[in-house]
UniProtKB/TrEMBL annotation:
InterPro entries: Bact_HTH_transcr_reg (IPR050679), Chorismate_lyase_/UTRA_dom_sf (IPR028978), Tscrpt_reg_HTH_GntR (IPR000524), UTRA (IPR011663), WH-like_DNA-bd_sf (IPR036388), WH_DNA-bd_sf (IPR036390). The keyword Transcription applies. Keywords: DNA-binding, Transcription, Transcription regulation. Signal peptide: none annotated. The keyword Protein transport does not apply. One of its GO terms (biological process) is negative regulation of DNA-templated transcription. It comes from the Bacteria. It holds the Pfam family UTRA. GO terms for molecular function: DNA binding; DNA-binding transcription factor activity. It comes from Planotetraspora thailandica. Residues 6-74 form the HTH gntR-type domain. This is GntR family transcriptional regulator.
Length: 256
């Protein structure tokens, strides 16, 4: 922010933004509750909410409504706002991410598995056609696997994001850094979403990618996220090794 700070909430926004950007408060870390911040700055909780809304709009934080689902790796929480590569590193877990494919596809041709299968009935039922907030006719598909040691793959992820801005050039340029960072540079900041989790046996292709036997049991997660104005941000389908990953649900969380 630039220029003189005159309003109470702007003083809070500037102070918290400085702490986040300097690393004093790690990006994606949970801030104190509204009541604690109100006491710290000597303002009302309404003023704090206004400041947090500005930080959320700037992509520095993501506010939560008191409930949600969070992926755990070996019992340690992974904050999706950071991207899993950074979140795992923050937990002291060394991983290597291998990008398998980056492709530009028409959303009407994608089936629920993220492939160009040509089976229109499956596309309509489980693909991206008709997903709220997705205005771009094309999407970029990114497939990745994560390894915690050589030859030890713990997850396979397939992300679909709108083919807008610099994201449309990813198939030609490649993914430098994390996909979360690329989304932020494109002005796409997740605000809310939904996640589904089930278990299933992996097929032959997935088994080859995960270096497991066909029919092995994996956690299957689908997360879809939108911006505050309802714009589609990302759908990511993941296969997670249940020996390392689990899902934690919270509800009725207090803000103070």
């Amino acid at each position: 922010m630039t220029g003189p700070v005159r309003l109470k909430h702007q003083r809070i926004t500037v102070a918290l933004e400085r702490e986040i950007r300097s690393g004093q408060v790690p990006r994606g870390a949970r801030l104190p509750g509204e009541l604690a911040l109100a006491r710290r700055f000597g303002v009302s909780r309404t003023t704090v909410r206004t400041a947090l809304a500005e930080l959320n709009e700037a992509g520095l934080i993501t506010t939560r409504t008191g409930k949600g689902s969070f992926v755990l790796f070996d019992g340690r929480p992974l904050d999706d706002r950071l991207g899993w590569a950074h979140a795992l590193a923050a937990q002291g877990v060394e991983t290597r991410t291998r990008v398998l494919r980056i492709a530009l596809c028409h959303r009407e041709e994608l089936c629920g598995r993220g492939d160009l299968c040509g089976r229109e009935e499956l596309c309509r039922r489980d693909g991206l056609a008709g997903v709220p907030g997705l205005d771009s006719p094309e999407v970029v598909v990114i497939e990745r696997v994560r390894e915690v040691a050589p030859q030890t793959v713990v997850s396979y992820e397939r992300s679909c994001v709108p083919a807008v801005g610099e994201l449309r050039d990813l198939p030609a340029r490649g993914l430098a850094g994390s996909l979360t960072e690329a989304l932020n540079r494109a002005g796409l900041h997740p605000d809310h979403g939904e996640q589904r989790l089930s278990g299933r046996m992996i097929d032959d292709r997935e088994a080859e990618l995960l270096r497991r036997e066909p029919g092995a049991w994996f956690l299957s997660a689908r997360r879809t996220s939108w911006a505050g104005d309802g714009t589609f941000i990302e759908r990511v389908d993941s296969l997670l090794d249940p020996a390392h990953f689990e899902l934690s649900l919270t509800f009725g969380e207090k803000t103070s």
